Amino acid sequence: MSNEKMKKATPVQQEYQQLASQLEPKRPLFQNCWRAFLTGGMICVIGQAIQEMFVHWAGFDEKKAASPTAAVLILISIILTSLGLYDKIAQWAGAGSAVPVTGFANSMASAAIEHRSEGLVLGVGGQMFKLAGPVIVFGTVAAFVVGIITFVLKGTGGGH
């Protein structure tokens, strides 16, 4: 309960909140951080391995291998989500599973799976973009602002 709500709470409610906070089990902070670190790191290692495969076996250079690598990570995330495995990984790993590409794909796929019975447009499409819309908008705005700042700091540079 926030401090503002605690001020408005009755004495009985305040006493209950104090008792509840005393009985609440302590969170294993170090363990949670370690799990998040391991899982996020493992996702990144897998991504790097996939990129290396594109470079060595498909003849891509590192820059051109980035897009198919992201696509494969998204595909893996969606498959794991559809099998119910990504949620189990996320439950164990906590924030470590929220690596941007796979975490975002998981959240989109979860929304699509959950609302598929409502139809493609209002169910799948509408519910997926309740989450994706703000991310896309703020990502685009942030990219625009960074682009303007970069342009201003570097100047026009005579076509460089």
Would you kindly provide a written description of the structure presented here, covering whatever features stand out?
- With 160 residues, the protein is an all-alpha fold.
- Helix content is 81%, strand content 0%.
- The chain is built from seven helices and no strands.
- Helix 3 (29-58) crosses helix 4 (62-82).
- The longest helix is centred in the last third of the chain and has 35 residues, at 120-154.
- The radius of gyration is 22 Å and the shape is extended.
- It starts with a helix and ends in a 6-residue tail after the last helix.
- The mean pLDDT is 87.
Strand percentage:
under 5%
**Alpha carbon gyration radius:** 22 Å
Structural class: mainly alpha
Number of strands: 0
Distance between the termini: 56 Å
In round numbers, the mean pLDDT is 87
Low-confidence stretches: none
Helix content: over 70%
InterPro entries: Spore_V_AC, SpoVA
Organism: Paenibacillus brasilensis
Protein name: Stage V sporulation protein AC
Pfam family, one: SpoVAC_SpoVAEB
